[in-house]
Amino acid sequence: MEKEQKRSKITFTGIRKALRLYEYAKPYRWQFAIGLIMLLLSSSASLAFPKLLGDLINLGDEKRLLQEIDRVGLILAAVLILQALFSYLRVRIFVSVTEKTLAALRQATYSHLVRLPMRFFAERRVGELNSRISSDISQLQDLFTTTLAEFLRQVIVIVGGIALLWITSWKLTLFMLAIVPGISVLAVVFGKLIRRYSKKAQTQIAESNTIVEETLQGIFNVKAFANEYFEIGRYKAATNSAAQTGVKAGSYQAAFVSFIILGLFGAMVAVIWKGVMLMETGEIKIGHLFSFIFYTIFIGGSIGGLAEIYTRIQRALGASENLLEIHDEPVEDIRLAPAKEVAPISGEISFLNVSFHYPSRKDIPVLKDVSFAVQPGWQVALVGPSGAGKSTVVSLLLRFYDPISGAVTFDGQDAQSYSLTDLRSQMAVVPQDVFLFGGTIRENIAYGDPSASDEAIEAAAKQANAWEFITHFPEGLNTIVGERGVQLSGGQRQRIAIARAVLRNPRILILDEATSALDSESERLVQDALDKLMQGRTSIVIAHRLSTVRRADLILVMDKGQIVEEGTHEELMERAEGLYKGLSELQFTV
Questions:
Q1: pTM (two decimals)
Q2: Cα–Cα distance between 265 and 255 in angstroms, integer?
Q3: Which residue in 34, 118, 156, 468 has its CB near the most CB atoms, within 10 A?
Q4: What is the per-residue pLDDT across 226-261, written as a single tens digit (0 to 9) for each?
């Protein structure tokens, strides 16, 4: 379902918050000021246009000399040319300032977003965050490019137009102000009612499109359960509902058209009638009446247009609030520029009485008083049932989160004493569900070290047992892997991820059972690559299949957030009632 754009009430507080975005436009403030001057000049020229037209008509009515008529005609042509020039410069300047400002804002938002801690992403949906960078900034683009300029232009036209009307004929001005603004306001109310039904119809159409999308994505299940008739009924009900709303909106739209014809044209007739009456008494000339009618149309249109502009400003303020909420979130202490020197770690790890719960679930403890020690170069396996806390241990190692109590140490120093960048730059992760970016194989392997040479990338691919299948592709390393790596098999994706980790050359390697979903041949190749990768490094392995961790230096058996057993495979198998022995026997007897 499509989500309606957030609209905020226009308040001084909201405007003050939105003005924080001015810092991104500050380098272009003089350029923006010139744009405002062009806006003032083009609006003034548009106000001069009806006045000059009226003067031209008066000259013709009074049978003036042709030279005088030509003079006013030339002035009128000059005003039109200047208005076109000022409008061109205004749009050009505003677009230039807006694009530069929003580019800086997008870069700042993205830079801030990727430095936010994991707890932030755990509480947000990806679509929502993507919307902040795309649609919310587009709302601001509309504000700076057109909405702000239109708002100022409308105000200038209304204020300047009424002033010129008053000079032309104060009696006719009072008569016009008693009729036209009221009709314009009623037209705005009518328009809001129609928009409400139009949005409702759009929402219902979006719901029917969702049914189509779900049906086509799940066509296997639809046909397997013989639910074609059910899905047709769902879609029919959704489209009928949208049609009924559309018909209702159409009836209001028809009434609105009739109102416009009767109301606005009726108002024009009334103003002209009153103007003709004043002409008969000699209080106004025909040219001035012509100018008056033009100004009245300008003012009526501007009053009606202010409502739409007000709505767009509300949306832009809502968008700015959304963006500022992200900018107000505290970021991790991450160094963006590459460091000349990195504080090295040997791979020694200790958990000292660590307890932890996730920020969004404070009432559910995930780790309880966990303690263990790992020597450099050890292979350590984390085993246990789902929900035991294995992945949380890895999250604390990477410092995605910090313990609630206790401490995690590297080489005897508290993890929090290290720079996050230094710590994570000496770790590599090979997850079970590998994520590949949609670019080339080369780019995905080089993600482990963006500065790596082609020779280093090739060597990493060979060590990961990936070079053979890469060379079989016509494009080799330049093969596009597709979104999330869909062009590659599961085993190929795993080996690309291992090559990425090889290129990283980490001191600590984290593996989430990378072979559990592979066929026998792919598992053999991946396991061989992992064995080579783990040599000489501290390796933390989340094990789902216990056959892969029999040679581990230390096996930590976890259950309900605690370490209930620890030791080697042989030591744990000697425990008659041990959880590890029970899990092992269960797997090997199936």
A1: 0.70
A2: 15
A3: 156
A4: 888 888 988 898 888 888 887 887 777 777 777 767
